[in-house]
Amino acid sequence: MPATKQIAEAAATSAGTAASRTETATAMIIAIAQRHAAGTRLGTKETLRTECGVSVGTFNEALALAQARGYVTMKPGPGGGIFVDEQSAIARLGNAMLALDTAEPSVPDAIRIRDALDPLLIDDAVTSAQPADIAGMRGQLERMRAALDAGEHLEFARANWALHRVIAEASPSQMLRSVYLGVLGLLEDHAVSIAGSADAPLPEYVRSRYDLHVEIVDAIAARDGERARELIALHNLNG
Questions:
Q1: Are 115 and 218 part of one and the same domain?
Q2: Are both 60 and 130 inside the same structural domain?
Q3: Domain GntR C-terminal spans what residues (predicted)?
Q4: Is residue 215 part of a domain?
Q5: Residue 14 to residue 32: CA distance in whole angstroms
Q6: What's the CA gap between 137 and 164, in Å, rounded?
Q7: Could you tell me the pTM of the whole model?
Q8: Is the dihedral of CA 60, 66, 101, 9 positive or negative?
Q9: What is the mean pLDDT of each run of 10 residues along the chain (239 residues)?
Q10: What was the pLDDT predicted at 112?
Q11: Which DSSP letter does residue 203 get?
Q12: Rounded to whole angstroms, how far apart are CA atoms 83 and 165?
């Protein structure tokens, strides 16, 4: 068995049966990157995805996490592809947060930091989001709606996190994106379930959260900064 797959399987085993395919693929990408020096070209997205043996959607989410954690970077154009990144101060900070041993002291802090950064990212999204970014946001809203209708609590949360990642990626500030995605990664790593049974309808509170996110994306698409800021303040006020 290739060493990369052994590392991925060990990571999945240590995390238990709840380990997600995305986290497993992220561990594989990081393991590949750690075998090479900074600046080494690892290949194209497709060659690396094939090596990881996962779907396009899973790979893209895993690649985003590996990038946020400072292990790889993407370069466009001829000769571009996925490269081993140099560990910046921001990446080291993000990895230090992700390495915390227990959720109790770190998650509340992560939520406070996320809430403080959300208005900055919303402002950037209003001014900088491109049509493809808006389409990506609406795609995650569709995921949230499908999970809502199916009563799939964890899938709803994952789609919600993915929406916030897409909003963050619209920011032109690499530092802001890196810190925010690192904090969001910490929250994702520790959150394994949402209150309620797997087959029960999602509570009305969660339905209201879906509606609020629809309004946020609509405000971003309309370039309505004032409305978007009002909505993100309401979003963070109500958890």
A1: yes
A2: no
A3: 109-238
A4: yes
A5: 19
A6: 8
A7: 0.56
A8: positive
A9: 46 44 89 89 92 91 87 87 76 56 60 91 96 96 93 87 95 90 79 47 78 97 96 85
A10: 87
A11: P
A12: 21
